[in-house]
Amino acid sequence: MTSDGLQNLVKMIEKLTIAREPFACYTGRGVKVGIIDSGVNPAHPHVGGVAGGTRITSGESDSTNDYLDYIGHGTAVAGAIREKAPEGLLYAVKVFDRALTTNIETIIKAIDWCIENEIEVINLSLGTVNVEHREKIEAAVARAAEEGTVLVAAREMSGQPSLPGCLRAVIAVAVDWNCPRDTYRVAGRADERNLNGISFAVANMTGFVTRAREFAPTAQVDRLKQLLVAGSTKE
């Protein structure tokens, strides 16, 4: 094969790769994405800056502007979202400080901050299996849905349904090691395994949801789910 022929083959493969990605023509341009996590390091090359952010505290003071990431988890999540939605507007909503633990009140405050700041997609690479928190979380998710804010979260943790990911008004995500990162699958049945990597599976899906939101800016969660199913690789 000549060098010109090889170059043409490479270009053809690149086009086919782009074409199979859901919402491949969209970049999340202008869509506001809230990353509720350990903060974000905006200077990280995989992040490329953030549009803003806050730190939600568990004390009486609701928030501060210190959203710098001291753990690295939120920054990695932001990088994964940025890869799929390079023109999305990322907002760091810091709820973890030096460890990946917080309380339900802080999570609720973080969701409410996103609603108040007109965030369109919320990435929650976290969750709880404590059913005692269901009522509070369900109310926060309902407030978000009413304002057109979509949450993306893990469906389960340690084989148990995870809140808020198990709620109907949330786009739920599970890990599939056989599914490449340039696509996603719609589950045909419940899978009771919890695998390492769920944080980044959620972030990957958030990137696709951000693209879908650019495609359909006023779509509510049920409509977005329909669009995502249409663009998925079926099991």
A few lines on this structure:
The chain is an alpha/beta fold and 235 residues long. It has six helices and eleven strands.
Instruction: Give the overall average pLDDT.
Output: 82
Radius of gyration: 18 Å
Element-by-element helix/strand order:
HEEEHEHEHEEEEEHHE
Can you count the beta strands?
11
Give the strand order, joined by hyphens, for the main sheet: 3-2-4-1-5-6-9
Q: Which shape, going by the Cα principal axes?
A: globular
Oligomeric state of shown chains: single chain
Describe this structure in words.
By secondary structure, this protein is α/β, with parallel strands linked by helices. The protein has a single domain, classed as Peptidase S8/S53 domain (Rossmann fold, 3-Layer(aba) Sandwich). It has 6 helices and 11 strands. The strands form 3 sheets. Strands 3-2-4-1-5-6-9 form a 7-stranded mixed β-sheet, sandwiched between helices. Strands 7-8 form a two-stranded antiparallel sheet. It has a two-stranded parallel ribbon with strand order 10-11.
Main traits of this protein?
235 residues, alpha/beta, two-stranded antiparallel ribbon
List the helices and strands and how they pair.
Layout: H1 3-20, E1 32-37, E2 52-56, E3 63-64, H2 73-84, E4 89-94, H3 104-116, E5 121-124, H4 134-146, E6 150-154, E7 156-157, E8 160-161, E9 170-173, E10 185-186, H5 198-215, H6 221-230, E11 233-234
Parallel strand pairs: 1-4, 1-5, 2-4, 5-6, 6-9, 10-11
Antiparallel strand pairs: 2-3, 7-8
